[in-house]
Amino acid sequence: MKSKRLVSMLVAAAMVAGSMPLTVFAGRLDYEHEETEVPQITETEEEKETSKPAVKETKPSEKETEPEVKETKPEVKETEPAETETEETKETEETKETEASLPDETEPSEPSVPAGSAGVAEEKLPEQTAKASKKNANSGSLGKSVTWSFDDSTGIITISGTGAIPKYCYLDQKYPAWSGFTDDIKEVVIKKGITSIGNDAFRRCSNLTTVTFPEGLKTIGEYAFNSCSSIKEITVPDSVTSIGTGAFSSCTSLKKAVILGKISAIETFVFNGCDNLENVTIPYGPTTIGGWAFLDCYSLKDFTIPASVKSISWAAFGNCTSLKSVTVPGSVKLVGISAFGGCTSLETVTLEYGVQEIDNCAFEDCTNLKTLSIPNSVTTIGGMVVENCPKIENLSIPEDMFDDLGYEESYFAPGGIHFLKLEDNTMGLKGKTAKVKYKKLKKKARTVSVSKVIKFCPKAKGTLVYKKTYGNKKISVNSKTGTVTLKKKMKRGTYTVKVKVRSLGSETVKKTGWKTVKFKIRVK
């Protein structure tokens, strides 16, 4: 024992002097070439050795047979105590207790490896503390006038007050106050007075089965109910005008959705991944169906596109493998890329007159598609519109549009192409001169009807469109009616205007090409 202490004292003295830095690996002494802060640690370890004589003497036979291990005993500290020590767990615990007291007994120094590990733990601590506090708080306030409370026994969370539920963001780790109960919430009751549900408010409430929306609610935020995988049915009140991106996405048990409000758009991803959704009711109102809105809704059997919709975006109904028929109303001007791609049960598609553009791959991989009706109103057809649609039996299309499909007739089943029988459409134009009184134009703008500046001989059938190509900037031409408008305070004189005119035809009449006419307006 005396020799052990003597060795320890000599080692400590040498290290304090800085003449012989030491470190311990695998229970032996090694020399190092660069100076470290080990002297302070070994000085502390000597004190530790002195303060625990009983511990050091527990197995003298082992210490005497391995003198090098005895010499390294003061250094066992923070590096690898399990490898250098052969003593029992009790000695290890006592050694850790001694090390914990080192900062108070030694001069301040940079933390060693264990202190660094503690630093890592401290980085995780705020999140852990936040989770714990959330779990303990069953109620609270959300701003000045909105409160929440959660009942553990029933799993019901109630939001009451006036105003909006704040916006949250899981990606930025901005969680709602009740996030500690995410897996415990079974029912959400939102009281009258709440006008908005913020982004991510009830995201990932996997056991949520029932949501009560109040009258007066106006908006449902982005991903507000994303991944609420136990909800089976929702009814959104008629006061709601906006439902955000992905609001009900990945609600995998949702079977029925009724939207009573006049929403402005069916947003991107709104029902994406609702693979059990069978029926959706949306009234007149939305002007767009966003990209991927119903993507992977494998059980969707029927959907009526509101007549207010003007565009169907990218893959809006992609992979709706139970959808059997679709009618696209004439209000829709654009059927987007892969809008109905992968609808493997789709058999009939009817595009009503008014649809103007069918984008690339719109009906690609509709492997059971048999009937496709393309109206004469279509002016643009993208590539591969019916790619991998081997069962088409009845393709109805204007003859002058067929080449735009990019397929040979042999691609379709024999007799499968039905070219629309359309009447010829002719149009003649002659410019005229219209007169406008300067005194009246000086006070306010004046309009001139198309019949006073253009003579049709004959007038084309179907819908006409107009496009001004030349003339004074203060003179405009309405693209739908051809009406000419002169801004007030134009100077006296004669103005020449050039306009292009064409007919878009109709369901039974062919379209015409553009024709140019020149007319004059005299201000005097």
Structure description:
Strands 3-4-5-7-9 form a five-stranded mixed β-sheet, with no helix packed on it. It has a five-stranded parallel β-sheet with strand order 15-16-18-20-22, with no helix packed on it. Strand 30 and strand 31 form a beta hairpin. 32% of the residues are buried. The model is unreliable at 16-136 (pLDDT under 50). Helix 1 (2-17) packs antiparallel against helix 2. It has four domains: 2-110, no CATH class; 130-260, Leucine-rich repeat, LRR (right-handed beta-alpha superhelix) (Alpha-Beta Horseshoe), CATH 3.80.10; 264-421, Leucine-rich repeat, LRR (right-handed beta-alpha superhelix) (Alpha-Beta Horseshoe); 429-523, Immunoglobulin-like (Sandwich), CATH 2.60.40. The chain is built from ten helices and 33 strands. Helices cover 18% and strands 24% of the residues. The chain is of the alpha/beta class and 524 residues long.
